[in-house]
Amino acid sequence: MPTPKPEPGPFGFARISLAHLPTPLEPLDRLGAHLGMEPGALLIKRDDATGLAGGGNKARKLEYLCADAQARGCDTLVTGGGHQSNHVRMTAAAANRVGLECTVVIAGDRPAHPSGNVVLDELLGPAIIWIGPADYYAIEAAIAEESDRLTAAGRHPYAIPVGGANAIGALGYVVAARELQTQANEIGLVVVAGGSGGTHAGLAAGFGDHTLVLGIDVGARPDLDQQVPLKANEVAVLAGLNPPTGSCQIDHDQIGPGYAAPTDACREALELAARLEGVILDPVYTGKAMAGLIQAWRDGRIGASTTTVFWHTGGLPALFASAYADWVRTGSSLWTT
Ligand SMILES: *Cc1c(COP(=O)(O)O)cnc(C)c1O
Fold it and tell me: Most exposed of 28, 66, 143, 242 (fewest Cβ within 10 Å)?
């Protein structure tokens, strides 16, 4: 494949084409009917189908982040994430696609038998640094440390925060909100998983209205309520838009015992999507996001005539992590922190 080059993108920012866009918007009528919704009321935005080493929401962010890295003359992408980070996998793939080096820091210890995203991380071949058990801020600190180490060694690192959640990355979702508006005219609500919050922030800024987006917190960071409105304002300024109106909506009821911990509601969502629609959700993000959508509907927080879009953000490889195998099969789990 020819190496993709930066090209002028929306809002005056360079982007490098990495994702298959636009992603499809499809009806989920069989799932909708099961929940008691009208035909056409429940839709799915297929950002699991962006391509780039398995796809997911990080592809849209990386289009702008990689262009920025090249514009700054950087030679190495540096990022990090949790053990089954989709962002790490996709950043490594993006680096390979555009011809940059890549260093990733991953929470936890190197597994004896890789599974899920780690199989793909090792195949893609970035420099991997296992940092042992680490929370969100410890991972951010390790990214900064690794960038400093590379700088001292004469390299030109481009540090990308966990989840690609800075304003440049979130631009991808400002553009994605506009993309959705060209595919459907009356969107009542978008439901999306919230990890680092960059996707939610970009969508809210792109719509110009917080009340159109319901974020489902998956427990990745403790300050999501502060970060999403902050990042939404930041990316709106960057794109030359007004800050979004209304107040930010985030549901914290689906986290369960913690980030990446299986819950019964998540498993119900995985099963419903798979068996009624042939759509595969993941145990860390999209399963909990769909569980949040179902709960909001059952609580009467989603109106009967509201056109609701479930934003599928990817994450399929995590389903193949050994920690979830028994949970997927039987509903019980050997999952530990
Ligand atoms: C990273 C990720 C999210 C969360 O996106 P943020 O922008 O970090 O909030 C959701 N779903 C999947 C599958 C992801 O990999």
Answer: 242
